[in-house]
Amino acid sequence: MTYRLEMKEMTKKYGDFLANDGISIQLKKGEVLAIVGENGAGKTTLMRMLYGLEQPTSGEIKLNGDQTQFYGPRDSIKQGIGMVHQHFMLFSDFTVTENIVIGHEPINNGFFNRKLASEQVQKLSDQYKIPVNPSKKAGDCSVGEQQRIEILKVLYQGAEIIILDEPTAVLTPFEVDELLKTIRYLADQGKSIILITHKLPEVMKVADHVTVLRNGRVTGNVKKVDTSIDELAKMMVGRELQQLSERNQLKGEPLLEVEAISIKGKGSKPVLDQLSLTVHRGEIVGIAGVSGNGQSELIQAITGLTSVDQGDIRLGSTNLTGKSVAFRRNEGLAHIPEDRFLWGAAKEATIEETGMMGYYNKKAFNKYSFILKKSFRGVVKGWIDRFEIKAKSLDDKSGNLSGGNLQKLIVARELGFETDFLIAAEPTRGVDIGAMEYIHEAILEKRNRGDGILLVSSELSEILLLSDRIAVMFEGKIVDILNRRDATEERLSVLMAGGKEDESSTKNTTTA
Amino acid sequence: MELFDYSFFASAIRMVSPILLAALGGALCARVGIFNVGLEGLILAGAFSAIVGNYYSGNVIVAVLTGAFGAVLVSLLFGLATIKFKANPIVAGIAINFLVLGLTTFGLRAIFQVKGAFYDKDMNGLPKWDLPFIENIPMIGRFLSGHSPLVYTAFIAAILLYIFLFKTVLGFRILAVGKNEAAARSLGLKVTTLQYGAIIASGVLCGLAGAQLSLGQVTMFTEGMTAGRGFIALVAMMLGQSHPIGMIGSSLLFGLMDAMSIRLQGFSMPTQFTAMLPYVITIIAMFFLKDRGVDSQASGQQSSR
């Protein structure tokens, strides 16, 4: 049998740098192929060549047995290849229908037949069981819905091969499940799917075949049934994953005390509702919850980015309520923000400048309000060495760093303040396994030194791995706090959905 | 003498047309994501080329076509700078304005050997067309009718542009380019071609605006005769949110103010003062604009979410 798509010995050179070095993949009809690898392993380059955005240095592409070439997205779309980009390519002011049919609009004497388009979209949506509202504006759709628009768009374009680039990075756990079902259904309908990801549990759930890339080469090519997460991880990282350090028992006195804080917010329900929480020295407290249940506001309230309507926040013996961000940071609070571009870094600033944020005022780096850049350079270089941040030079723009590397820089910066208390919000969002290990290890090390950490994450696995206690947030309240040994993914999921644990369970401190 | 009479409204409508034509051109550029500050220069180029065409051919149609052609040449220069060489459109637009101001002044001396203004009584101006049926409508017939063909063209162009942008496939794609260029490229839309198309069309429209200025009333060219109309058109474009029908409204407002400033002179108001009226209105209009105008997604595309 001929493959639907075959890429043979694909090589792409940028100057002396080999981004892809003889990579081959095969894809059958109705098959889900997962291409996994860390950031910079060459996944994106390979897909860009398939989508016609890059020309290969050498290698050949065969479609249904015939050799072919792609000179641009138009070409590959025409030949039945569709791509769902990681950052959605949507027009937020256009309707769902318009977003789906654009480029292939039904035409009536040069006029755009919107009615027919809308009917076609509805039909397609029913056919593939991908629900959307054709007349809604794309900008008003949820992230999951926007992704469904993207998938319908490539289906509308007649794609037989669908590339999904890191599709789950932006989704909630529930939306991820829905997406994986859709992928499976599409494959059963005879579509071929290429799934680019570094999230191995999802690979194990949905893929038929896995190709692993590392440093531009294929390091594994296996059937899903013949492999395991551990084996894939090893092929991806190129070494055994390290176990996290031991956690020593040293829960000390209370460090951060949040007492009955409330934020009214715009809606009828308060965003934060009489929320109380304590983080002790030598403790990691994890906050679990479906995003949008007040986690962001809690972080902002503690860091001083937003003010509370009621309640007190204390760090050690100092009352932080109503104080400025700078005051709080000086009192010993560091913050790895949940959105690195929004809060964590300035894209246009150099790597050095991003590193220096928050330090320029410190005595060691500031003399008569002149910044002592020279003495700071060594500090940034130290971080780059320790966290293996891949940066061309310190004068390169922060925005040019890959997401994972920028995140490592921010983590290094915030750890570098050596504060007693740290808020780590989504510390490993969009970061690959290797970097994740570093960051997790660094957070745990900080805890073992006796500092207090508040961890907020949408990845339950991360919460379960690191936290000593886990607080579950729902609608602006903490519905329950579980101890490390009592917490399981199932129990947390129930609590996160607002459900109460059944009566037989061990503890029930707060009422929902 | 009354403040508002038929001739007042008639002159207002005449004043509207260059502003509306140029605003439509600017809107087309805005819709493909290019903010065209060079409207002023394009109109001036059109006005001058139209006079040159008129002088050498003696034919009004040729004159108008020359006007459009002259402005298109300049708009291509602007397109080359902003699209091909990715120059900042504001800087490129301002450069175009000064370049054309200099070029036309130089052209006056080189071609006509005059300074300041050129007038020749043998040149033909644009004809005045009376509209059948409409001229017989009581009240409004008298000021709606009897204008140059370019005045009617302006209003028809606005309606055509509305249909083009919001009903046709090509127009839809143009809107898409302006809303999110990266997404349009990822779909394989011919972004660059569409952008050049819009810029050329804006050149044609501004050329017509210029021809109306130099051939519409008195057939003559004076240095810098656009007198800021390109910028007023820019404001009309933003006030009308680059929507053709909205721009008819905003251009009418500025046309009325233009006519008003002339009319007020008849009430022994100092010229210097009345001449400020359109610009005062522009500033007031800006208060109501705030951050409106065409929204493009060029910035603020992504966060890490």
What can you tell me about this protein's structure?
The complex is a heterodimer of chains A (512) and B (305). With 512 residues, chain A is of the alpha/beta class. Chain A has a domain at 5-237: P-loop containing nucleotide triphosphate hydrolases (Rossmann fold), CATH 3.40.50.300. Chain A has 17 helices and 24 strands. Chain A has a six-stranded mixed sheet, with helices on both faces. A six-stranded mixed sheet of chain A has the order 18-21-22-15-23-24, with helices on both faces. Chain A has a four-stranded antiparallel sheet with strand order 2-1-4-5, covered by helices on one side. The N and C termini of chain A lie far apart (58 Å). Chain B has 305 residues and is mainly alpha-helical. Chain B contains 13 helices and two strands. Chain B has a two-stranded antiparallel ribbon. Chain B is globular and about 60 Å long. Residues 293-305 of chain B have low confidence and may be disordered.
> What is the rounded Rg of chain B?
19 Å
Name the strands of the widest sheet of chain A in spatial order. Answer: 6-9-10-3-11-12
State the total count of DSSP E strands of chain A: 24
Main β sheet profile of chain A:
6 strands, mixed
Number of domains as seen in the coordinates of chain B: 1
Overall shape of chain A: it is: globular
The major β-sheet of chain B equals: 2 strands, antiparallel
pLDDT under 50 segments of chain A (min length 5)?
503-512
Mean pLDDT of chain A: 88
CATH class of the domain at 5-237 in chain A: Alpha Beta
Secondary-structure-based class of chain A equals: alpha/beta
Shape of chain B: globular
Helical residues, percent of chain B: 55-70%
The value of Rg of chain A in angstroms is 25 Å
CATH fold group of the domain at 5-237 in chain A: Rossmann fold
In the CATH hierarchy, the architecture of chain B is: Orthogonal Bundle
Count helical runs of chain A.
17
In the predicted model, the low-confidence regions of chain B spanning at least 5 consecutive residues are 293-305
How much strand of chain A?
25-35%
Q: What is the ordering of alpha helices and beta strands of chain B?
A: HHHHEHHHHHEHHHH
